[in-house]
Automatic annotation (TrEMBL):
Gene expressing this chain: fadJ
UniProt domain 3-hydroxyacyl-CoA dehydrogenase C-terminal: residue ranges: 506-599, 629-713
EC number(s) per entry: 4.2.1.17
Ranges of residues in domain 3-hydroxyacyl-CoA dehydrogenase NAD binding: 324-503
Family of the protein in this entry: Belongs to the enoyl-CoA hydratase/isomerase family.
The protein's enzyme class: lyase
Protein name, UniProt field: enoyl-CoA hydratase
Organism annotation: Alteromonas salexigens
Matches recorded under NCBIfam families: FadJ, PRK11154.1
Database matches in Pfam families: 3HCDH, 3HCDH_N, ECH_1
Sample GO molecular function, one term: acyltransferase activity
Keywords assigned: Acyltransferase, Cytoplasm, Fatty acid metabolism, Isomerase, Lipid degradation, Lipid metabolism, Lyase, Multifunctional enzyme, NAD, Oxidoreductase, Transferase
Chemical reaction(s) catalysed: a (3S)-3-hydroxyacyl-CoA + NAD(+) = a 3-oxoacyl-CoA + NADH + H(+)
Length: 717
């Protein structure tokens, strides 16, 4: 027998919490925030939860409490991020953290045993809530994930997470989770010791109830190897561990992100001075971080991507269902596209290549990635086999008849791609969409001889496909709305964030990347050392410098797009002619171990191949500051991004920001090119462009749209 209790205890009732008493002495505390698809924690719940805890404490009939979510597919997604915008001072933000800490402390100290029953996402404050419970049981479902992703918002866990997780699973593993923000899937969570049990969803509540009746656990210290004991449990060991963590973090962040440093400091305080000191430091740091510009920008990225998840490219046009997919070409891109289609979208994929080795390579791409997960015990072998069975190959169009979308990732050659369009039109069904993964050829040209041009579209992925989150969806003038919405939805199923862009040379991402790369090349020719240029832009916040990026992408591939850009937009895209010498010298970059960097040395890719200077007839020497170098390259990108928005290549500043961050690695803490221009002020951007126009040349002439915006004192947002 169960009995529902309404909270009639003076606290405002949000309707988010229900307490159901059962005869077996277990009460179920269900969180189900009305009118929201996911539970998030809000400041105003504080009094209500406290009142409910009073009630539980006062009822001797309640021996255990199972804390569960009323949402069908998630537990609690953390503190409500939108609530942070209302904080006007550090003290406001600190108070939010302290409020959460007090409630969670109380849960930990409660007389009845609390068990968190987790299915789906338990993130940020959601996991912190679960960590305050005495036990955690989760489902073995794919959707279950437990993590502290606050760092990705420029924050740190503010409700006890920095203190409870290290005490539960050890400092190193906990710190890694907080510094990367990567969540653990169910199997990992069990392996790390975050949860006490992992069970099928059908028995989650039943198992959680048995834990609730078990009494509080006598928690042992996390299991540690001898080495880890020395590192985590002794004064000198801890000192060394935190010092190393600081060094590694600084070498990654270049000082651009304040949150990771605070995470390390606060964990250290708690580990050396105890839980209470740790919690105080945590709340202080949370207060400071909420007010930083970095956190503000990172939170805007969260809101933008959440908004984009709901869009399908054309308002009101429903996508067609995609039940089977074809991939043409089993190279690196084809292999990656097949992988995300089978593993993320869960759709059968037929891969065609002209050579059996091509198909084998594509299969191996998926096999290797999945096998890694199995080896790390993050995935069951049966699941891997299930996903691998979705991939099949063929040397002809056998098995393509029922493909709803075919993605082409063959050699960059217009005639070849047009032939592929014709082949797909004759071998597949009438509704099959032809999506080209070209990075340089305008889709209009690929569709030029198509019988059904409305079903031809661009779907441009970034390498490596399994990691890079962006996909550009490129509609040419005749692409139908239904083709757009189906392709956008398909890319989302593959785990991508699609941005719809207009057809034209370079689309959006490569169009803004090219002038930036060209400027880096011009600086080399002006005598700046290659590594000085790369360092300048890494310090600015890019994941790799432009010259290193060219080596990674392939110098031949990276420069292929230039003639298309010059054709369409003129001189400002011209690459320095000396670059022909680089290609003529057989330098293609990392792939043939010959580029701007050395690849057959002790530290492959880390040292510059000095012979490049002799080849270009240069004697390198530093004559410009890192700041100036970064400014010159980045201004070229900003100027082009503004033109893209003005010409409708991208539909909004938001799309332009997300495209640059997810496709190029534009520093997320700056919010993307458009948010960065707003921070600098458009008139400042124009003034700096004019400065370089005078000093370097006409290619720096500010875009008309920027001049107009500066005159009218406008911003992009
Ligand atoms: C004090 C604490 O330490 C501080 C914190 O907890 S900060 C917050 C930490 N938590 C996070 O960063 C998690 C953020 N959320 C996510 O990553 C993803 O939403 C998710 C993985 C949970 C789910 O992804 P997905 O299934 O694709 O759903 P998604 O569309 O993103 O979200 C569904 C809805 O929940 C909302 N939502 C999810 N997490 C939210 C959060 N923490 N705050 C506010 N809204 C949130 C989304 O805005 C969206 O709302 P809408 O439908 O009204 O637009």
């Amino acid at each position: 027998m169960t009995q529902d209790v309404t909270t009639d205890n003076g606290a405002a009732d949000s309707g988010a919490f229900t307490l159901t008493r059962q005869d077996n002495g277990v009460a179920i505390l269900t969180m189900d925030v009305p009118n929201e698809s996911m539970n998030t924690l809000k400041a105003e719940f504080g009094d209500e939860i406290s009142a409910m805890l009073d009630e539980i404490e006062a009822d001797p009939g309640i021996k255990g409490v199972v804390l569960a979510s009323g949402k069908p597919s998630s537990f609690v997604a953390g503190a409500d991020i939108s609530m942070l915008a209302a904080c006007e001072t550090e003290a406001d933000a600190r108070a939010l953290a302290t409020g959460g800490q007090e409630v969670f402390d109380r849960i930990e100290r409660m007389r009845p045993t609390f068990v968190a029953a987790i299915h789906g996402a338990a993130l940020g404050g959601g996991l912190e809530l679960a960590l305050a419970c005495h036990y955690r049981v989760c489902t073995d479902d794919q959707s279950t994930q437990l993590g502290l992703p606050e760092v990705q918002l420029g924050l740190l866990p503010g409700s006890g997470g920095t203190q409870r997780l290290p005490r539960l699973i050890g400092i190193q593993q906990a710190m890694k989770m907080m510094l990367t923000g990567s969540p653990a899937r169910a199997k990992q969570a069990k392996k790390y010791g975050i949860v006490d049990d992992m069970v099928p969803q059908s028995v989650l509540m039943e198992v959680a109830e048995t834990y609730a009746l078990k009494g509080k656990p006598a928690r042992e210290k996390p299991q540690r190897s001898l080495m880890n004991k020395a590192l985590e449990l002794t004064g000198p060991g801890k000192k060394m561990l935190f010092k190393k963590a600081r060094e590694q973090t600084l070498s990654k962040t270049k000082g651009n992100y304040p949150a990771p440093g605070y995470i390390i400091d606060v964990i250290e305080t708690g580990m050396n001075e105890g839980m209470q000191a740790g919690l105080r430091a945590e709340a202080d740091a949370f207060g400071k971080l909420v007010m930083t510009p970095e956190s503000y920008q990172l939170r805007q990225i969260f809101f933008a991507t959440t908004q984009m998840k709901k869009e399908n490219g054309v308002e009101g046009v429903a996508p067609q269902s995609v039940n089977k997919v074809g991939v043409l070409g089993g190279g690196l891109m084809g292999g990656g596209i097949a992988y995300v289609t089978a593993t993320k979208a869960g759709k059968p994929v037929r891969i065609k290549d002209v050579r059996p080795e091509g198909i084998a390579n594509a299969m191996k791409y998926s096999y290797d990635l999945l096998n890694k997960k199995v080896k790390k015990r993050f995935m069951r072998k049966t699941e891997m086999q299930k996903q691998m069975s979705l991939l099949t190959g063929s040397l002809d169009y056998n098995g393509f008849q029922d493909a709803d979308i075919v993605v082409e990732a063959v050699f960059e050659d217009v005639d070849l791609k047009q032939r592929m369009v014709a082949d797909i039109e004759s071998h597949c069904h009438e509704g099959t969409i032809f999506a080209s993964n070209t990075s340089s050829i305008p889709i209009t040209q690929i569709a030029a001889k198509a019988n059904r041009p409305e079903q031809v579209i661009g779907l441009h992925y970034f390498s490596p496909v399994d990691k890079m989150p962006l996909a550009e969806v490129i509609a040419h003038a005749e692409t139908s709305d239904s083709t757009i919405s189906t392709t956008v939805e398909f890319a989302k199923k593959q785990g991508k964030t699609p941005v719809v862009v207009k057809d034209g040379a370079g689309f959006y991402v490569n169009r803004i990347l090219a002038p930036y790369m060209n400027e880096a090349a011009n600086l080399i020719l002006a005598g700046e050392p290659v590594d000085h240029i790369d360092k300048s832009l890494v310090k600015f916040g890019f994941p790799v410098g432009p010259v290193k990026l060219l080596d990674e992408v392939g110098i031949d591939v990276g420069t292929k797009i230039i003639p298309f850009l010059v054709d369409e937009f003129g001189e400002r895209f011209t690459a320095p002619p000396a670059f022909d010498k680089v290609l003529a010298d057989g330098r293609k970059g990392k792939k043939n171990k010959k580029g701007f960097y050395l690849y057959e040395s002790k530290n492959p890719g880390k040292e510059v191949d000095d012979t490049i200077y002799a080849l270009l007839g240069l004697t390198p020497s530093v004559s410009r500051s890192e700041r100036d170098i970064a400014e010159r390259c980045v201004l070229m990108m900003l100027n082009e991004a503004a033109r893209c928005l003005d010409e409708g290549v991208i539909r909004s500043a938001r799309d332009g920001d997300i495209g640059a961050i997810f496709g190029i690695g534009f520093p997320p803490f700056l919010g993307g090119p458009f948010r960065y221009m707003d921070t600098l002020g458009v008139s400042h951007v124009v003034e700096r462009l004019r400065h370089y126009e005078q000093e370097v040349g006409e290619k720096f002439a500010p875009a008309d749209v920027l001049i107009k915006m500066a005159e009218n004192d406008q911003s992009f947002y």
